[in-house]
Amino acid sequence: MAAKVRIATTSLAGCFGCHMSFLDLDERLVKLAEVVEFDRSPITDIEHASNCDIGLIEGGVCNSENVHVLREFRKNCKTLVAVGACAINGGLPALRNFIPLEECLAESYLDGIGVENPQIPSDIELPLLLDKVRPIHEVVKIDYFLPGCPPSADVFWKFLTDLLEGREPSLPYELVHYD
Amino acid sequence: MSKTLTIDGKAIPFEEGQTIMEAATAAGVYIPHLCHHPEYTPHGSCKLCNVNVNGRVCSACTFPAAEGQNVINNSKELNDDRQKITQMLFVEGNHLCPGCEKSGNCQLQAVAYHLNMLDNHFPHFYAKRVVDASHPEVLIDHNRCIFCTLCVRASQQTDGKDVFAISGRGINKRLIANAPSGLLKDTDLAATDAAAHICPTGAILIKRTGYQVPIGERIYDHHDIDEVSLKVEKV
Amino acid sequence: MKEIIDNLSKKYDHRPTYLLQILRAIQVEFHFVPQGAIEQLAGLLHIPRTQIIAVVEFYSFLHLTPRGRYDILVSDSITDHMLGKNALMQYFSDRLTVNVGDVRHDALVSLDNTSCTGLCDQGPAALVNGYALTRLDKAKIDVIKGLVDQQKSLTEWPAELFHVDDNIHKPGLLLNLQTGLGTALKSVFDRGIPETLAEIDKSGLRGRGGAGFKTATKWKFCSEEIETERYVVCNADEGEPGTFKDRVLLNSYAHLVFEGMTLCAAIIGASQGFLYLRGEYLFLYDKLQKILLERRQAGLLGNNILGKNFSFDIEIHLGAGAYICGEESALIESLEGKPGIPRNRPPYPVTQGYLGKPTVVNNVETFLAAAAIALNGGDWFAKVGTEKSKGTKILSISGDCAKPGIYEYPFGTSIQDILTDCVATDVLGVQVGGPSGTFISNNEFGRKLAFEDLATGGSFIVFNNTRNILDIVKNFTHFFAHESCGFCTPCRVGTSLLQKQLDKITDGHGSAGDVVELEELCQIIKKQSHCGLGQTAANPVLTTLERYPELYQSQLKKISYEPGFDLDAALGTARRMANRNDKAAHLAQIGEDHE
Known about the structure:
Chain A has 179 residues and is an alpha/beta fold. Chain A is 30% helix and 20% strand. Chain A has one domain: NADH:ubiquinone oxidoreductase-like, 20kDa subunit (Rossmann fold). Chain B has helices spanning 20-26, 76-92, 107-114, 150-157, 225-233, and strands at 3-7, 10-14, 50-53, 56-59, 70-72, 131-132, 138-141, 164-167, 174-177, 204-206. Chain B is an alpha+beta fold and 235 residues long. Chain B has two domains: 3-74, Ubiquitin-like (UB roll) (Roll), CATH 3.10.20; 95-229, 2-Layer Sandwich (Alpha-Beta Plaits), CATH 3.30.70.20. Chain C is α/β, with parallel strands linked by helices. The interface between B and C is large, with 39 and 39 residues.
């Protein structure tokens, strides 16, 4: 039996909605599991990605940890895929790009309504925020894009089966949507 | 006898005075476009309708049809450039479809779907643009304006008003409203005006009408804009 | 204010076509265009206020917020940079205690950049309240600081600050011409109008602005239009960086230029002409008005010219800082008092130009040449030059040469001969035709000045081997992004993206695919843009990429991808607010083992 295709997935500045949509593959997941296995993913709890064939990234890049995780994926995945609106263009988290980060942090931790003991969290364990939320293709090279908020299970299915069966992945009109 | 030109090898009849776009639409050939609308003076700014006429790039919406023209429209080369031009519009403004009530009925989005655009390719500008919600019935979200001037033209040519204009230069272009305050509420725009309904994107919206059509039943959910556009615009 | 606006509007007969001229006057008076003025003017001219705002926001010299009483704009042309512009700008900023782009708190002075002012042969240059300052150095800036502090009116400033030289180093067929007032025009009537058009046709004269359309053909088309209200427009919006020959022609040959316009009017049947003078040449305005007056007094303008039942007059319209207005249909829009946005073509100006009427638009040099041809005949002109490019071309030469200035050459002259004449040594390359033209390397100096080889509107910038090509390309690319009118998507967005992509590479953030990406972007802008600006905006990149591909490649890191922005700097605000500086509070620009 041929080795299974290894897939890693993660959510950066995302809502896990794309992962939920992936799970909407329902019974097709069983079929998929015959040919793929999961590496680092919320599904497996594996902490770091090792050599993988496919990396699926949900969410944009909003902080330093996102950058590290994204780089780990790029380094370990032969094919890296931007999954969903946030990975592709920053999505709704990018709404904060129109407000200076200084104001965002001040509002949240210093002078916003209901703030007690105002202070900016400062701990070496906490990732620092980037001044803007970025699409992932502005930080690493991305091989494929699956639009949608979220991309439907059919999108995942079409894309993965194309890839697994050696076809150049393509999405028909019905499967391309940005919402 | 009517004259003919060819588009992608197909003979297309036309009448003197028609543009290539008009001849194509009448013959059931879709040429992608955003700033063009058959009821208004052609503008020629979005450049999605650029076609190759006898070896020269011309905007189909403004270029006069002429006997014997050999027009290339639906080529990979042109569609690749059209996709890039659409991507330019997406990164110039802030087009966050999941949070836009025009989603599914938006022509910018539909053209992008038509061109199988899967990402925005270019770095985003994330330009700071404002929302003018001052008018009781109509909303302007400048994040979504693509400067097609359809609202400008509709206000002048249908409504007999002059509510909108495009100001600024280059990448600093902006839509402005005709009032001393610059606010929509102080203009003479009425929610029934053509200008309030013509926007191809979600930049000008009628308030309290969003999300009335469920996903799956919106204009472009199952119908490509090439089909929808011809149905609406073919006379 | 109300009275001032009333009088201005009255002066221009409340005609909206004079909007730009009126707004220029308002800007001079108030140092900006106040909202009250916009409201009042909208009423007086019967135009929507939005049209006025659109005009103010389009032109660089008009403002919706106040500039200083002394508004200083430093020329940002590559030639100014080569003469030490950056250091001088810093000195200006320090001495006047104002940041670049800002107005000083006391509102006395403001400082900013402006596109090439057409003084490349005597830079670094600047404008103060629109008037040209030449050959700036620290000593002159000290003087200017003193004058500003004392709030001296510009009329009290030493004339030496504003001195502009012609620098004609090599006159030829046209620049050597000695003519009496009106002699060219008289020869038109003596020979006959159709016969004169035939002479111009025979001369082979092609438009000198760069596009090279045959002049006689354009005039003939216009004269054959059914509509009899026709216009002559002289394009003196010489905005191509490195070009300044029109400045010299209007300073020293204006009579002949106006004569060329007048005989064009006689040929095409026009009774009104316009000289569209770029705002940067404000210092020529009074002088040109005086010359027009002299011509009226001599019976060469006005009614019944030379007793021939021919009436024609010329008005001068000033631009206000917009390169795009050099494009003929944008220029016509500007003449009509609108933002300078190029029109869709067809219709061409010869059929529907100014106010929708048939209009001939030609370059200053073209009218000068036409007058000379009317005087001396077509053969006199045609015997000079090459088969396809007749006559001579007047060049504006600047950059790394001992004798920058004006040179007139027969078409067909080699680049090497020109470089020898202007005493240029150790040459790296030449930008022929300005940023929208071609960069040629020192392997190509055998090439010739001609429409069929190196076409040029007249800009000729020499670079020696100490210059960095990418700095040059960057300056030009930023220029186009700044000057794009924004009408069409590929140019509006594309030129800004091109600027970003080029900066990414030159700032050292480029990686494997970035040059390919750069070139693809160039091709789309070139192919898909609406007008000549967009279609040539990528030329600086394309012409140097073709010649020096290794130069671009050498900027790239040998990695597959690098962000186009500074990742660590993007953490700066959070780092400062969280008061952190530990290792985890920083990001490397590229992943550690990214290779």
